[in-house]
Amino acid sequence: MKGLLTIGLLILSNMFMTLAWYGHLKFKELKWFENAGLLSIIFISWGLALFEYFFQVPANRIGFRGNGGPFSLLQLKVIQEVITLVTFVLFSLAFFKNETFRWNHAIGFCFLLLAVYFIFKK
């Protein structure tokens, strides 16, 4: 149960972080933000990233083996990175129609899955 909760919280945290890091690139298409300066965009992105911490910190605390969770520190990091990349790919394909997912990206993801396998191998 702690493992699923950890992964769920990491997914939520990465949704906010991806929006904070890359969502602002689409803000200019929204009427409210079309004239926003860089400082405004930084503060908006920072505000979004704050919500990432509301999920990331509990996920790591719940999931960490040292706190009674099922994952080592290395395992938590690898899980987080894979979730980050999957979230980013889905986000970029949904919101940036000019981005494409090519065969070399698929091969890279296969290598990431191999990394997960080896990190979790006893």
TrEMBL record:
Pfam family, one: DMT_6
The entry's keywords: Membrane, Transmembrane, Transmembrane helix
InterPro entries reported for this sequence: DUF486
TM region positions: 36-55, 76-96, 102-120
Protein name according to UniProt: DMT family protein
Record organism: Flavobacterium keumense
